[in-house]
Amino acid sequence: MTDTTTNAPAAAEHGPVPLPPSVARLLVAVGAVGTIASAFLSWTWTSDFPGDLTVYGYPAGLQILALVGGVLTLLFGLTLWDVKWLRWLNPANSTSPVLLTALSAFAVCWFTGIAITVDLGGLVNLDPGAFVAMAASALPVVGALALPHPAPGTGIRGYLAKPQLPAPGKASPLTERIVITVGVALALVTFTYGIGIDNDASETFIGYLLLLVFAAWGLMHTGLVDRFATTAAHHKGFASALAFAAAVIFPFTQSDDHNANVGVNILIFATVALGLNIVVGLTGLLDLGYVAFLGVGAYAAALVSGSEYSRFSGVHFPFWAAALTGMAASLVFGVLIGAPTLRLRGDYLAIVTLGFGEIFRITVNNLDGTSGPNITRGPNGITQIPDLNIFGFNLGESHNILGFSLGRFANYLFLMLIVTAIVVLVFTRAADSRIGRSWIAIREDETAATAMGINGFRVKLIAFALGASLAGLAGSVMAHVNYSVNPQPYQFAGAAPPNSAFLLAAVVLGGMGTVSGPLLGASVLYLVPEKLQFLQNYELFAFGVALIVLMRFRPEGIIANRRRQLEFHETGQLDVPTQTTLSDDPAVTKAGA
Amino acid sequence: MTTPVLEARDVTMRFGGLTAVRSVDFTVNSGEIVGLIGPNGAGKTTFFNCLTGLYVPTEGTVSYQGKVLPPKPHLVTQAGIARTFQNIRLFANMTVLENVLVGRHTRTKEGLWSALLRGPGFRKAEKESEAKAMELLEFIGLAAKRDHLARNLPYGEQRKLEIARALASEPGLLLLDEPTAGMNPQETRATEDLVFAIRDKGIAVLVIEHDMRFIFNLCDRVAVLVQGEKLVEGTSDVVQADERVVAAYLGEPFEGDPGAAEAAEVEAAEATAEAEGAESAEPADSAETAEPADSAATTDTVESTEADSTTKGEAQ
Ligand SMILES: Nc1ncnc2c1ncn2[C@@H]1O[C@H](COP(=O)(O)OP(=O)(O)OP(=O)(O)O)[C@@H](O)[C@H]1O
Ligand SMILES: [Mg+2]
């Protein structure tokens, strides 16, 4: 804090808008309050616009999002007034979180205004409330731009680059646990809200994404996200148990089994992504045909499911045996593909796996009794797969638990949660061991790794086989959840997950080599196509654009792999490499204090 | 009593038309520190790669403690030869400790199953590995930085860490490829002590270096490689006295007085040769990029300026 005085002249440099700081702060606060208030007004006259924004005194849909944006802006705006009990929100006293949260509210309000105008045809459809919202939400943005620049001399980029943050203080274990609990609860609420948005209300979902992106960005700039990650890393067991508990609670919060279905599919997608993360994230092998392993597992489980359309319709394995069959089949397939290809490096491996992935789909398509022997019934697939029955508990039926009625998909959600937990455990344990270190070593420098005595081929084959069998496990559940299997989803790229491109994107987007990254990436990549049905044919295009933007601004993925030693954060040496260049003067960002 | 640890017989390495190493016979005995010198592009690193299985020699065999080594890097390490690289090849995004733990790969056995089940055996082995790794980190003086990422270490410490990582495989022979490249005189001195300490642990050392003072201080025996062929081999005095060596470094017949063979003169010649070599190293480097070989023009440049300053320091 002593450097405040020395840097005073630098701190005085305001942003692009020439206003005195006091006025700027006032603008932020007033605008934020205005935004909050506007959420209680009517924004349009008809409930034709999704979310029903017509009621006074009762925010709905996009208004709730605007309200949240406004509250966040107000909170961060108040940190600039030196409110004591809010100081923890913005320890670096940086102005960029204020701008980013202001932008989140601004984006939601203006998007809504424009969407109403376009959807309903004309400005006349806007009620005064919408104008209030748009005007009020613009004020904090202007105000934030007049506040002291977070990194003088860097222009607009200074706002987007993460500031250097002071080392966090120590908190008691109890406080830390409370923080984790609150964080997990917030995440559950956020996720539940997102998943609960009606599929027809694409506008609301876009608003949700806008708010989420800007707010998360702002939170990252305050250092709260890092601190949360550090805290969670300190209490790893507690944090994972809570996250698991939150996932168990999720179906109880849903009145409709449809959202549980979405949840199951997300979990299937996520576990497969996590398996792929072993291959891509840890070992550094680019596998473009990974979805085939999911397919092998699904088909293997379907064949022994007792379905009358299965080639072996008399065979009806119990679930554990079916799951093992799925895993074993994928493992064998993985070794068969891996053995000849893993001697290749880099691009060659990617191309060969891409080829094998397609070969799987085409073969399955042709094993229909006409082009080849009848095993998979070709494009018709194996249908009428019976529901699982585990220890007399039929997963196909609704059950009443604690007065809550849990439907079929909720049952499968619980099963998938157990599978996910197993996969997470396998991933973390394998990663933190002799074999995991040799995977990472191979990813870092294969030549050096072999010179350290690592049998590259063998170790890569193990990674490949393990990844494949985890996908096979997920596949064996998927076959039952979907009642049927057919070749169509197991392609390289398609408009909806799972396909190899989406899986890879989930890993890269979420953060390679991490556990939570692929889980998050899979959720996002599943929900976006599901909720934004109007994208349809443009989906792949939008997806490509989103990936490019992300790779440009955050190449390490949403969740950076900080390699466990976050407690060393104060030395700055675990910082994400791309961000070190911009703020070469660490003192400057503190100067606002 | 000296027994041969490493025996290279008639090793030849050809890249298409270029013969980088030409029928080299070479022996390292237990307890010895042997130097390998030669002008840039002489084939020293290529020779190392042949010894460690990174290259399969076109002709000839390499044996370790009497057994012929298969040309597979991991089997060579398993047998007991460890190495460092001319252009540092650490696992940049792993911590210091993890780097050393990777070095212990061949001396531990836990596979995937024991990692997943985490039985007492696994925990014990991990503990032991960590203790051994920490011992090595203390030995080279990096214990305090165990949790730093390797890429964040200063240059000199990265070189040390590479040595620790190599030692972790409990080798009987350590190959060092230009361990002091880019170091300042104090660091070079410290490395000298380190190499002696390694020898005192009973590990034979074969070291490539351009810093002549370092080599002649350190080595019991020095071999000179010129254009892939072994020119001279013998004690420091013999090699320093040999006019062919000087000539090879200068690239022309040496006309001075060979009798006294002052080290300073050799060094001056060496430094000049290197300054030239640094420029001519470019094409050699580009030829290598396709292969996992190691020779970096940058390292060479740093090294030559370094050698210059050393020479100057001595002249005054
Ligand atoms: N993989 C390769 N393919 C083709 N030529 C190679 C390869 N590796 C090395 N060479 C060539 O072999 C020769 C010897 O190179 P090497 O790297 O062994 O020299 P060096 O003695 O280590 O030199 P320096 O002192 O610069 O490290 C060079 O001419 C180089 O271009
Ligand atoms: Mg070399």
Automatic annotation (TrEMBL), chain A:
GO terms for cellular component: plasma membrane. The keyword DNA-binding does not apply. Keywords: Cell membrane, Membrane, Transmembrane, Transmembrane helix. It is found in: Cell membrane. The keyword Hydrolase does not apply. GO terms for molecular function: branched-chain amino acid transmembrane transporter activity. Pfam families: BPD_transp_2. Its main location: membrane. It comes from the Bacteria. The chain crosses the membrane at residues 26-45, 57-78, 98-118, 130-147, 174-193, 205-225, 237-254, 260-280, 287-305, 317-339, 409-428, 461-481, 501-528, 535-553. It is a multi-pass membrane protein. This is Branched-chain amino acid ABC transporter permease. It comes from Streptomyces fuscichromogenes.
UniProtKB/TrEMBL annotation, chain B:
GO terms for biological process: D-alanine transmembrane transport; L-alanine transport; L-isoleucine import across plasma membrane; L-valine import across plasma membrane. Residues 6-252 form the ABC transporter domain. Residues 269-298 have a biased composition (Low complexity). Keywords: ATP-binding, Nucleotide-binding, Transport. Residues 253-316 are annotated as: Disordered. InterPro entries: AAA+_ATPase, ABC_AA/LPS_Transport, ABC_transporter-like_ATP-bd, BCA_ABC_TP_C, P-loop_NTPase. It comes from the Bacteria. Residues 299-308 have a biased composition (Polar residues). GO terms for molecular function: ATP binding; ATP hydrolysis activity; L-isoleucine transmembrane transporter activity; L-phenylalanine transmembrane transporter activity; L-valine transmembrane transporter activity. Coiled coil: none annotated. PROSITE patterns: ABC_TRANSPORTER_2. GO terms for cellular component: plasma membrane. This is ABC transporter ATP-binding protein. It comes from Streptomyces fuscichromogenes.
